[in-house]
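User: Sequence in, structure out. Go.
Assistant: Echoing your sequence, followed by the structure tokens.
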Amino acid sequence: MSLKKNTFSNFIGFFYTALIGLIILPLYLKYLGISAFGLIGLFTVLKAWFRAFDLSLIPTFSREVAFNRNNATGIYEIRLLMRSLEVLFFIVNILIIFTAILSCKWIVHSWLQIENIDYAQAAFSIILMIIIISVGWFSDLYRAVIQGMEDQVWLNVANIFILSLQYIGGLILLRWFTHNPVHYFEYQLMIAVVDVFLVRTKAYRLIPNASDHKYIYFSWNAIKRILLFASSLAYTGTLWLLLTQLDKLLLSHILPLSKYGYFILVALISGGILQFSAPISQAILPRMTFLLSQGKKEEMLQLYCNATQITAVLVFSLSGIIAVFGRELIYAWTGNIIAAHWIAPILFWYALGNAVCTMQSFQYYLQCASGNLRLHVVFYTIFSIIAVPSIFFAAYFYGPIGTGIAWLLIQCTIFVGWSPIVHRKYAPGIHRVWILRDIMSIFLAVTITLFCLRMVFIHFEWMSRIEVFIILCGFGIVVLMGGALASSACRNFFAPTFGKKEVLKV
């Protein structure tokens, strides 16, 4: 499958995800109320935390699919590993669901600061959340096959279909039938089952049984073969989980559920910045791994630099608009001026922090494609010893503003201290060009454009929500164009139309 087609389809899938969320989520807030909306926020946090329980076997499996897809023996190994992971995940999920049933009352009565929601409803909602997450593990497993086989056009079509059922169907349920959060989560469980059936069927069609291997059973040796690499991913993934989700977990205990609902809006919007890089990473990681397996390191590095530039243009533009015009954006989105004033100062720090986080994640892509995460493990072990206590301190003494500032400082420290070390090991000589050409030139162009736009005197408070939204979209396009002009990769993309193509040197 063409890399351009995969990347383009990934962006369509992402933009649909972002658009449907922007349209539907404020309506969820309207029909559920802010406290029940906080339960949806808790569901988002739990999904992130429970990813640690897969021991990073799913991303490792995706890498194995990409590496072994071109030979008959490799297809059998993929099928054997998938069956083994299915059995392992089933056992682990049974244990997790049983634990959730035993602990849900403690979570409701002792951890959450519940307001205006029946305790029994909240407890049963938590059990449903865990079951949905458990079912989602299997969906992620089969998606890893489809992604590793680079059939991402089909995958994005399927994702759009499932997202439509989740968001639009959920809205219909809440608008015309019930405002009970339990019914909402029951509906989401039903869609999760449909999702598993859909992607499982596709995954098994992509890797059919070979005639001489008709029956495939559980194999511990197949899992053990990838366990070393997966354990590195799992360890660093757990550390990364602490850095990215610890604040949300702590604030779910510190803040009343109504205020936590507002904070979840911060997490959803700023989290969209991190997701903005997902379409590119989903497309380039299998291709980077494949190019290295073919001994084409120069092509891999060229892809790495081009992807960095494209991501920088998109992420710096988006995060800049969110940070600088946060209050106006929240009001246009929700129509809630109280939420806009509460969220905007917090959103500023999280938007900037997530922009830096997105760019420093490219060092992870480089190491993952190389199949060696030793440096990654060592660095994040040392850094987490400092960062995790800082998040605790910021959350308990300064609340969400403190965690936002701490998040930005953590990401800047990682970016400045970590990227040169990784480049020196895996891509010697590339760091200076990567920083100056691929990142800083775009950052400066976006910053100057945003400064000029902020100087334009506009009475947003006199405008309707639609008018504010249209102006912000226009500002976003202007900022995007400013960043694109500073990117050699973007200029090359439009070179056939506007002029001579540049030759990029890595």
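User: And one key feature?
Assistant: The mean pLDDT is 79.
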